Amino acid sequence: MSERLPKEFRLSGLTKTDRLFRLGQSLKAWPFKLVYLLEPAAGPALPQVLFSVPKRQHKRATERNLIRRRCREAYRKQVRLHLLPAVQTRGQALLLAFIYTGGKTSVSAADLEKKLSGALKRLALELAPPSQNTGAEPAPN
Question: Given Cys at both, which of 46, 53, 95, 106 links 64, Cβ 3.0 to 4.6 Å?
């Protein structure tokens, strides 16, 4: 099997990206800001993702590319474990954007993988139906 993130998992296209940032909800999990949008799907859908590293904090393209590569690799390793089951039980397509907000501080690949794993777990909890959330408050009578 290839060690790359398959094309089916990558978010591309201006219309989908625009819809994600216009209608999506956000969630902060340092060093990331996640923007996500659930859409109705015709068949089984995979979560589609994009990664963004702002030029404002990382002026050199090599730094931005390194962070993006590390994020994609961490996502590839963790997505089947944490996020894929939550998305498939909902039966909806998930559009997802990871925006790196770590500032100028450099984060090692291992730390980045841990942080991204935590962010995916948090997102999976957000996507779980209310009856499955353990920390959800009961409905008022």
Answer: 53
**DSSP calls for 72-99:** HHHHHHHHHHHTHHHHHHHTEEEEEEEE
Q: How far apart are CA 123 and CA 86, in angstroms?
A: 9
At 3-13, the pLDDT tens digits run: 788 888 999 99
And the tokens for 100?
Answer: 């790196």
Cis status of the peptide bond prior to 6, with omega within 30 of 0: no
Residues 20-45 pLDDT 10s: 999 999 999 989 999 999 998 877 78
Report the alpha-carbon distance of residue 10 to residue 57 in Å, rounded. Answer: 24
Its sign, for the CA torsion 97, 102, 106, 109, is negative
**49 forms bridges with which residues in the sheet?**
10, 96
Q: Cα dist. 111→41, 58, 73, 106, 129 in Å?
A: 34, 18, 13, 10, 30
Tens-digit pLDDT profile for residues 97-106: 999 998 877 7
> Is 70 exceeded by the pLDDT of residue 134?
no
